[in-house]
């Protein structure tokens, strides 16, 4: 459990950074996913904004409650981890369905899918 706050900081910060980079069009074209200019792909990518922001808001909230010694941080952390694994699953499912196996997009999304499962069982046992 000691690693969880650091992972929250990295993931929450990573999501916020990703969306800032996306809004500012900082990622070079050669590193964008296939068909990035397709309006449906743009809409698909932006469809992740609400869940990614939910990950960040609940993760930051959980860290704040933890710092204050409020036990409810574990419930909020559970919600954040469920949002995180869901976001990863949504992306991996999509890339698998369209047959795009680019490691630069799969690796971070596999991480988002899998890392919460190292913490969810313990948090759920406490609930």
From TrEMBL:
Pfam families referenced in this protein's UniProt entry, alphabetically: DUF5360
Alphabetized UniProt keyword annotations: Membrane, Transmembrane, Transmembrane helix
Membrane spanning residue stretches: 7-27, 47-65, 77-97, 103-120
Highest rank taxon of the organism: Bacteria
Name of the protein in question: DUF5360 family protein
Native source species: Sorangium atrum
């Amino acid at each position: 459990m000691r690693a969880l706050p650091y992972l929250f900081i990295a993931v929450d910060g990573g999501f916020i950074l990703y969306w800032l980079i996306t809004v500012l069009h900082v990622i070079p074209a050669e590193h964008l996913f296939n068909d990035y200019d397709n309006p449906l792909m743009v809409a698909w990518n932006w469809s992740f904004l609400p869940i990614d922001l939910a990950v960040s808001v609940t993760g930051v909230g959980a860290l704040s409650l933890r710092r204050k010694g409020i036990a409810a941080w574990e419930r909020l952390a559970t919600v954040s981890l469920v949002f995180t694994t869901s976001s990863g699953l949504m992306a991996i499912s999509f890339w698998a369905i369209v047959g795009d196996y680019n490691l630069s997009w799969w690796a971070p999304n596999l991480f988002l899918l899998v890392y919460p499962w190292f913490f969810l069982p313990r948090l759920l046992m406490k609930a």
